[in-house]
Specification:
The structure is a single chain. This protein has twelve helices and eight strands. With about 260 residues, it is of the alpha/beta class. Helix 4 links the parallel strand 3 and strand 4. Helix 4 packs parallel to helix 5. The longest helix is centred in the last third of the chain and has 22 residues. The protein is globular, with a radius of gyration of 19 Å.
Length: about 260
């Protein structure tokens, strides 16, 4: 990791809309391409994917090499799962299914060295392979890692103010599908009850001065709706979605041209 690059925290302080995309596949060239296109962030999926730790490392390197922030969603809120990812020099981590103040404290503690937290000492890439001294690294480690709590259950919505009061919580991302499931609405993420919960989370973030965001399909009216709600960042689509949409549209165009030409 280039220790002279801006932290994710510094990027958010610029107050522009941050736009990201998701990665599930094993090929880091996909991450490199998406970052080269200009996406601000790449969400490297460790919950709903079969990526191993080495493949995750390659995605982090590829994203950062092309100027995008690398964010890893962990499989669960577990310090054992968080610890090795933190050592890879990731810019941010997403902790799924945060429903309470206690769960948020546990997530933050797993990213924080004692005496404030419980993170074990063993940096690899995160301290530039030892080119950054342990003393210097420890001083800046808390600011280096942007800690995002994912609200994806009605209990998390109910407890959002207490979650946001936890020291070290940097931002919130809403998982609208699992949130809709907790309301008995899956997969109707645009049901007014679900949207009302999303709005209440975003409004709480504004009250507490925390950044907030969501993953969205790339439809203008949907993105505009979330912008009107006050989001600071939006992630769009997995690489498989981009391939499906681009390749599918191109194939449809070619089929129609073939028909027009009697072929």
């Amino acid at each position: 990791m280039n220790n002279k690059s801006r932290t994710l925290r510094e990027r958010f302080e610029e107050k522009k809309l941050m736009i990201g995309t998701h990665i599930r596949s094993q090929d880091p060239c996909m991450t490199e391409l998406l970052a080269a296109l200009g996406y601000d962030m790449v969400w490297i999926e460790n919950e709903h994917s079969n990526l191993d730790r080495y493949q995750t490392t390659l995605h982090i390197i590829a994203a950062q090499a092309r100027g995008a922030a690398a964010i890893v969603r962990l499989p669960w809120n577990d310090p054992v799962l968080a610890k090795p990812i933190l050592e890879l020099g990731v810019d941010g981590v997403v902790f799924p299914m945060i429903n309470s103040e206690e769960e948020a404290r546990r997530a933050v503690a797993s990213c924080t060295y004692p005496p404030k937290g419980i993170r074990g000492m063993g940096p690899i890439r995160s301290n530039n392979y030892g080119l950054i001294s342990n003393e210097e690294y420890i001083r800046g480690a808390d600011d280096q890692i942007f800690k995002i709590m994912q609200i994806e259950h009605r209990d998390g919505v109910k407890n959002i103010d207490k979650i946001l009061e936890v020291e070290g919580v940097d931002g919130i991302v809403v998982g609208q599908f699992d949130l809709s499931a907790s309301l008995g609405l899956l997969p109707d993420v645009y049901h007014e009850e679900n949207l009302s919960c999303i709005r209440s989370v975003f409004n709480a973030c504004k009250r507490h001065g925390k950044i907030c965001g969501i993953s969205s399909e790339p439809r203008t009216e949907i993105v505009q709706m979330y912008l009107d709600m006050g989001v600071d960042f939006i992630f769009m689509c997995y690489e498989y979605d981009w391939v499906r949409m681009g390749a599918g549209n191109a194939l449809h165009t070619m089929r129609e041209l073939g028909k027009e030409n009697g072929r």
